[in-house]
Design a protein that fits this description.
The complex is a heterodimer. Chain A folds into two domains: 50 residues, no CATH class; 235 residues, Orthogonal Bundle (MetI-like fold). Chain A has 14 helices and two strands. In chain A, strands 1-2 form a two-stranded antiparallel sheet. The longest helix of chain A has 36 residues. Chain B has two domains: 58 residues; 168 residues, MetI-like (MetI-like fold, Orthogonal Bundle). Chain B contains 15 helices and no strands. In chain B, α4 crosses α8 and α9 packs across α10. Chain B is globular. Classes of the chains: A mainly alpha, B mainly alpha.
Amino acid sequence: MQSSRASALPWARLSSRDRRGLITGLLFISPWLIGFLALTIYPLIYSFYVSLTRYDLLRPPVFIGMANYVELFTKDAQFWKVVYNTIFYVIFSVPLSLGFSFLVANLLNARIVGRSFFRAVMYIPAIVPGICTAMVWLFLLNIQYGAINGLLQSFGLPSVPFLSNPDLAKPSLIMVAVWATGNAVVVFLAGLQDVPRSLYEAATVDGANGWQQFRNITIPMSTPVILYNLVIGFIGAFQEFTSAYLIFGVNGGPLNSALLYSPFLYQNAFQYLRMGKASALAWLLFIVVVIGTMMLFRSSARWVYYGGEK
Amino acid sequence: MSAIATPPATPRRRAALTPRELLVEVLKYTVLLVLTVTWLFPFYWMFTSAIKDDPQVYTIPPVLIPNPAYWNNFADAWGKNNFNLFAVNSVFLYALPATALTVISSALVAYGFARVRWPGRDIMFYICLITIMLPWQVTMVPLFITFKSLGWLNSYLPLVVPNAFGSAFFIFMMRQFFMTIPEELADAARIDGAGEFGIFVRVILPLTVPALAVVALFRFLWAWNDFLGPLIYINEQDLYPLALGINRLRANISATGTNALAYPYLMAVSTIVVSPILLLFFMAQRTFIEGISVTGIKG
């Protein structure tokens, strides 16, 4: 800390006012600073070191270089399956949740009676304990006595093996994710309510119809919020744990078809006690999330419109 | 949308809707109704399954209104499985201490980022923000090893103590609130000779009680809902929080044979654990929405 401060801000060059400010400021943020060093930076580096070792918590770690990474990429067939599952999950759940919540937010932003009730309905799945909703979905999707299949059967339709068919396991998880996307709805709705009314009034005077207004006012003015929800959704989807782990168990359902990255990592760390491999997995995830997020921000220069910011 | 806002044909009286507008209105509410029913159905199923007996659970077509209703399931599922203890653990060992520490530390740190001017502040804040993006998986193993070596496994310390160091998300949230308070108020206190800490405690904090409530609400909620944290650190059953208690009940449902009343009990306990959150939400709906909106929009 001392050295970085000295190189970035030579103490001697600061005015006495700046010095006082610096000390006060650092004192106020010191809890975070200590936490940042002890609970973020140190574990981050330590994690990288552990990823270069074989470590089962019982015996001391053995340095094995890149062997964990090499094993993952070349020998571990399950790893590629998990990567495929996770990318599948991210690619479908993020845009579906985003598009769905944007449309719902627009619907709620229209002149309707009972807006806060409908908003609450959309939001509640996002704030109640994930374990409770996972338990209900586990039950709802059950092939024999789940409500969804029960209803299908009573209409004379064939039942759907949501949980036991490898092709349907991931879509089932995606369905649960879309159901729990209320956070994005609330954020979108707040963003929509910030769009100046005058823009719509001017457009109406110019004879623009509803669709044209949506296309040329609502969407461009919402792009900063779309970016925000996209980044949050992207990061969150890569890290999804609770619903996947609870609905499909530690092995990720039939043929590991719903084994997502985080449960896989958890399984390696705490069931097989393979701390080295788990840390290598964590670092790979970290790199992918950072690159992905950077690409989203990069691309945003082309499609995010900040002109409307106050 | 504004197509619906029709120019009044006859002043003072609401204009009658044209057939097309009427269609739009009907369509809108139909979609909302379908969404509402679909979205609430899992909760309805949770609640009604909680008051079924096994024959009702395994009936096809599904029983939508259990008759007779077994209200005793709530008390039985809760009482027979030690959930009073789990609730006490969740609230007093985890949620309350974590919330208290988060509120204090996040307010303190956010103040340093929002209202004290110092060189390097914006860079530091930027770094703080970036940590929100850091996947928890990266620090999971080293923190586990560290807390293990401290002898903190099977205790709530690993889940509570880190809150004393602030959480980037809540620091960001508090900072957004602090930024909206006019500087003049602090300046007046400064002229009266108050130090920065005095200004923080006596001038700014009282003005940000609603913001502190938002932070407290969300932190409490996260602790109440947390499953992964306790799953990693808590093994002893007497220390289980609610989430792990439910997870244990889930084991009653297996491929080889399901215990008697496994589903009703699981649903009964889930219903009870969900209800305080629903209650909290409807009591503090504005606080919730405000918190989400503030952090979301100005990001």
